[in-house]
Design brief:
heterodimer, A: about 110 residues, mainly beta, 7-stranded mixed beta sheet, 4-stranded antiparallel beta sheet, 11 strands, globular, B: about 110 residues, 6-stranded mixed beta sheet, about 0% helix, about 60% strand
């Protein structure tokens, strides 16, 4: 079992551009959550997807959007990138009834906006 | 409100015990978690405790929860150099168990 896989591992984008990050959940998991971890900070919840719909959203602007596919994989899209969007983006997968006691995190995508 | 606080740094000698502390403000917290993050890596769940428990032990790890003071601690016995990492405490709330609320992390440095 490959666990939670994220791609790419590193990415450099220019301010104003758009970016798409990808996540494949652990086998048997169908719920995907995304977190943003700025340098020196703890992760902040962006949103969660279940059954291809956004189930819950944190305090992030509409520039942050996502999608979940029928195979449970997920994408995080960020439009009109700002310097402040530079961070490690973490994906976590879980079963809907397992709560976070069974959530697994990927290695993250390090996004640098220049 | 949602606020989880941790001290920033802890330095211990190899073989000693480490105690990492965390305070939270939301009394509706259900589960409280400890995660470990090594350089360049994601988050690894170490252990968790349900809010109606006072203590949980798992090999070298002991979690203590003081619900009255909203204080959580993680004790690592016989700390090894491989324990050097950033440790995050996190909570979920009774009305929202989907969302993890993390502290800012404590960087543990173990020296020989």
């Amino acid at each position: 079992d490959a666990g939670v896989t994220q791609s790419p591992t590193h990415l450099i984008k220019t301010r104003g551009q758009q970016v798409t990050l990808r996540c494949s959940p652990k086998s048997g998991h169908d719920t995907v959550s995304w977190y943003q971890q700025a340098l020196g900070q703890g992760p902040q919840f962006i949103f969660q997807y279940y059954e291809e719909e956004e189930r819950q959203r944190g305090n992030f602007p509409d520039r942050f959007s996502g999608h979940q596919f029928p195979n449970y994989s997920s994408e995080l899209n960020v439009n009109a990138l700002l310097l402040g969007d530079s961070a490690l983006y973490l994906c976590a997968s879980s079963r809907p009834t397992g709560s976070n006691t069974e959530a697994f995190f990927g290695q993250g995508t390090r996004l640098t906006v220049v | 409100g949602e606020d989880v606080e941790q001290s920033l740094f802890l330095s211990v000698r190899e073989g000693d015990s480490s105690v990492i502390n965390c305070t939270y403000t939301d009394s509706s917290s259900t589960y409280l978690y400890w995660y470990k993050q090594e350089p360049g890596a994601g988050l690894q769940l170490l252990t968790y405790i349900f809010s109606n428990m006072d203590m949980k032990q798992d090999q070298r790890l002991t979690v203590l929860l003081n619900k009255k003071d909203k204080h959580l601690s993680l004790r690592i016995a016989d700390t090894q150099t491989g324990d050097s990492a950033i440790y995050f405490c996190a909570e979920t709330q009774s009305y929202n168990t989907d969302k993890l609320i993390f502290g800012t992390g404590t960087r543990l440095q173990v020296f020989p």
